[in-house]
Design a protein that fits this description.
Chain lengths: ~120, ~110
């Protein structure tokens, strides 16, 4: 049973460059989440998908961020014109949603650590 | 805006002791709560979740929920040095179409010393 995978694991980029991260969820999972985590803080919600539909995007997410999940499988998160404040761990999680009545497990991938110089 | 508060610690306990980690939340309507463990430089690992008042046990871990007091805790029995990590409490969003996303506290650093 393979878990959530993310690529790359580390990315160093210069300010102003664009970066793209990929997340492959657990195969049967229909929900995919992106979070961002900075040192000493808990993960912060960015956006999530139900199958291929993007259902919510955090108000904290600027227009430089965009995410896709074509065909409801893997997802990409792109950051345009990176800034030093974008330096963080970007975490992807997936889950199998059976509806809102009961909670369900959400599993995280290993994360992509972004450093903007 | 839902808020989740945790004491950042560090909490230090001797090996073999019970570690008690606490979390409070602001939204009285919150129903479900998750506990994750995160080792330094790694991603969060799910320990357990709880949505009913009372206790839920899984091995050495017990989650306790008191909705009236808006308080959730995690007890770790027979603490081991390998339990040294940051423990994250998260509230599960239940309403509308936004259900399923998690709002995390800042985490509590636990150190178990031999």
């Amino acid at each position: 049973d393979t878990g959530v995978s993310q690529d790359p694991r580390h990315k160093i980029t210069k300010r102003g460059q664009n970066v793209t991260f990929r997340c492959d969820p657990i195969s049967e999972h229909n929900r995919l989440y992106w979070y961002r985590q900075t040192l000493g803080q808990g993960p912060e919600f960015l956006t999530y998908f139900q199958n291929e539909a993007q259902l919510e995007k955090s108000r904290l997410l600027s227009d430089r961020f965009s995410a896709e999940r074509p065909k409801g499988s893997f997802s990409t998160l792109e950051i345009q014109r990176t800034e030093q404040g974008d330096s963080a761990m970007y975490l992807c999680a997936s889950s199998l949603s059976r509806g809102p009545a009961l909670p369900y497990e959400q599993y995280f991938g290993p994360g992509t650590r972004l450093t903007v110089t | 805006q839902k808020e989740v508060e945790q004491n950042s610690g560090p909490l230090s306990v001797p090996e073999g002791a019970i570690a008690s980690l606490n979390c409070t939340y602001s939204d009285r309507g919150s129903q479900s709560f998750f506990w994750y463990r995160q080792y330094s430089g790694k991603s969060p690992e799910l320990i357990m979740f709880i949505y009913s008042n009372g206790d839920k046990e899984d091995g050495r871990f017990t989650a306790q929920l008191n909705k009236a007091s808006q308080y959730v805790s995690l007890l770790i029995r027979d603490s081991q040095p390998s339990d040294s990590a940051t423990y994250l409490c998260a509230v599960w969003e239940a309403g509308g179409t936004s259900y399923g996303k998690l709002t995390f506290g800042q985490g509590t650093i636990l150190t178990v010393h031999p």
